[in-house]
C-alpha cells in the first residue's frame, strides 16, 4: 500500500492526550502523501475511489517509538544479568561491542537486530552503535532498507574504558565522528539520520565533549546519551566532574543538554529537582527504560513526576540492559514498576495508567521525531495493525480491554501490518 493516498479500516486507537484514549470502532484512517488526513466514520465522497485495506476486527494503533536501544548489544540480550551497570559494562558490554571492529561479525549481528526490529511494533528508534565508523554505517544501510525511521549514533568514548574499545584521543574521536557524518550525508538516506552519541560522562573527556559540541553546531545534529541511571555511576560522575551542579550539568556545561541541541537522555532514575528543572527548561527528552532499570538494579524512575512537570517522556527498550525489543513488554513493565515504586518507595506518586503508558510509547517518544505517534491530521502516518486472534478469549471484549491485553501479551506475532510515513513495511 504505497500509493500517495490510501485508507486503512479497523478499530482505531490513539492518544488524545496523556489521560485519554480516542477509540474509534470500524473507522477509516486516511493517509495522504505520508501524512494522516484524518479518521472518519464513513469514507468522505472525495475519497470514494481510493482503495481500502479492511483489517476487520484488528486494532490499528500509531507506531511505537523506541527512544533508546543499543543495536550491538542485541547479541547478548537476556544473558549475564546478575550485575549492576558498571560491572555489567566491563564484563558483558565492552567485550561484545569490541567485536564490531570485524565487519563480517557486524553484518550478521546487525541483520538479526534489524530484521527483528522491523517485525516488531516499533516504527521509530534512537539507536546506539559502537565506536566503529564502518560497522555503524553498515547498520545504517540495513536500517534504511528496512523502511523504519531511525536516528543512529557512532559511539564516542576516549577514557575509562578498556584499551580495545577506547578511541585513541579526543581529537581522533572527533575526526572519526566528522568522517562518519560526511559518509552518512553522502549516502543521502531517506529515513536514517545521524545522532551524536557520547556514551556517558565517565567515558568522555572534557576535550571530547568540547569537540562534539563544535560538531553538533556545525552539522546541527541531535545528541543522545545516558543520565542518572545507577548510584555507582552517579557517584563516579561527581568525582570526575566536581564542578558540576548535578549529573546533567556535566553535559549542559558543554552545550550537549538540550536548548539549541535536540537531546534525548536515557534513564533519569535519580534526576533530582534541579536536574529536572534544567531538562524542562532545555526541552531534553527522557527515555524511560523500565526493564533495564530492573535488570541492572538501577531503580525505578519517577515517571509520574516527569509527566506532572510537563517533561518530554518516551519509552526505551535499552537492549541489552533490557532483554527485548518488544515495546509492549516495556509498557507493561513501566506500569508494574510504577506500582512497586508507589507501594514501596513513595506513596505520593500514583502508579502509571494504561492511558499514560500508551501515550508515552506513541506520542511522547514520537515527538522527538516531529509530528509522530498520533492519528491527528497532519501527523506522519506510522501505523501498526494488531491481530489479537492468537490470544483467544471466550467473550467479546471492548477495544480498550483488547488494547490492554495487547500491552501485557502481544509480541511481533500480533503485528499483521505496519506502515511508516505512509509506506507499508515488508514484514518478511
Ligand atoms: N551507560 C553507559 N553505557 C551504557 C550502556 O551500554 N547501557 C546502559 N544501560 N547504560 C549505559
Ligand atoms: Fe543504554
UniProtKB/TrEMBL annotation:
GO terms for molecular function: guanine deaminase activity; zinc ion binding. One of its GO terms (cellular component) is cytosol. Keywords: Hydrolase, Metal-binding, Zinc. It comes from the Bacteria. The keyword Chloroplast does not apply. This is Guanine deaminase. Pfam families: Amidohydro_1. Its cofactor is Zn(2+).
Amino acid at each position: 500500500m504505497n500509493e500517495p493516498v490510501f485508507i486503512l479500516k479497523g478499530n482505531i486507537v490513539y492518544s488524545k492526550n496523556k489521560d485519554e484514549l480516542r477509540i474509534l470502532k470500524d473507522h477509516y484512517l486516511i493517509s495522504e502523501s505520508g501524512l494522516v488526513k484524518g479518521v472518519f466514520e464513513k469514507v468522505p465522497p472525495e475519497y470514494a475511489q481510493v482503495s481500502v485495506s479492511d483489517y476487520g476486527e484488528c486494532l490499528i494503533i500509531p507506531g511505537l517509538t523506541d527512544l533508546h536501544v543499543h543495536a550491538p548489544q542485541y547479541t547478548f540480550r537476556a544473558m549475564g544479568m546478575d550485575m549492576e551497570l558498571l560491572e555489567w559494562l566491563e564484563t558483558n558490554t565492552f567485550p561484545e561491542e569490541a567485536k564490531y571492529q570485524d565487519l563480517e561479525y557486524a553484518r550478521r549481528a546487525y541483520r538479526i537486530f534489524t530484521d527483528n526490529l522491523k517485525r516488531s511494533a516499533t516504527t521509530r528508534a534512537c539507536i546506539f552503535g559502537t565506536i566503529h565508523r564502518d560497522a555503524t554505517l553498515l547498520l545504517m544501510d540495513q536500517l534504511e532498507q528496512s523502511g523504519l525511521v531511525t536516528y543512529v549514533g557512532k559511539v564516542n568514548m576516549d577514557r575509562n574504558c578498556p584499551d580495545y574499545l577506547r578511541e585513541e584521543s579526543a581529537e581522533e574521536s572527533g575526526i572519526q565522528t566528522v568522517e562518519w557524518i560526511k559518509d552518512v550525508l553522502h549516502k543521502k538516506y531517506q529515513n536514517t539520520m545521524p545522532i551524536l552519541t557520547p556514551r556517558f560522562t565517565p567515558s568522555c573527556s572534557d576535550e571530547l565533549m568540547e569537540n562534539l559540541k563544535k560538531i553538533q553546531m556545525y552539522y546541527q545534529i541531535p545528541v543522545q546519551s545516558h543520565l542518572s541511571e545507577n548510584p555507582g555511576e552517579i557517584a563516579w560522575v561527581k568525582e570526575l566532574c566536581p564542578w558540576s551542579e548535578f549529573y546533567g550539568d556535566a553535559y549542559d556545561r558543554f552545550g550537549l543538554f538540550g536548548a539549541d541541541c535536540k537531546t534525548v537522555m536515557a534513564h533519569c532514575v535519580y534526576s533530582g529537582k534541579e536536574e529536572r528543572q534544567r531538562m524542562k527548561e532545555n526541552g531534553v527528552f527522557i527515555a524511560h527504560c523500565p526493564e533495564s532499570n530492573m535488570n541492572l538494579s538501577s531503580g525505578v524512575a519517577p515517571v509520574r513526576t516527569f509527566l506532572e512537570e510537563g517533561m518530554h517522556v518516551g519509552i526505551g527498550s535499552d537492549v541489552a540492559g533490557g532483554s527485548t525489543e518488544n515495546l509492549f513488554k516495556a509498557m507493561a513493565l513501566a506500569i508494574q514498576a510504577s506500582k512497586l515504586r508507589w507501594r514501596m518507595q513513595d506513596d505520593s506518586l500514583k502508579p502509571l495508567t494504561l492511558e499514560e503508558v500508551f501515550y508515552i510509547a506513541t506520542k511522547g517518544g514520537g515527538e522527538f521525531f516531529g509530528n509522530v505517534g498520533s492519528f491527528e491530521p497532519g501527523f506522519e502516518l506510522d501505523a501498526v495493525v494488531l491481530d489479537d486472534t492468537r490470544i483467544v478469549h471466550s467473550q467479546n471484549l471492548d477495544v480498550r480491554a483488547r488494547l490492554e491485553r495487547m500491552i501485557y501479551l502481544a509480541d511481533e506475532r500480533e503485528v499483521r501490518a505496519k506502515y511508516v510515513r505512509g509506506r507499508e513495511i515488508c514484514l518478511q
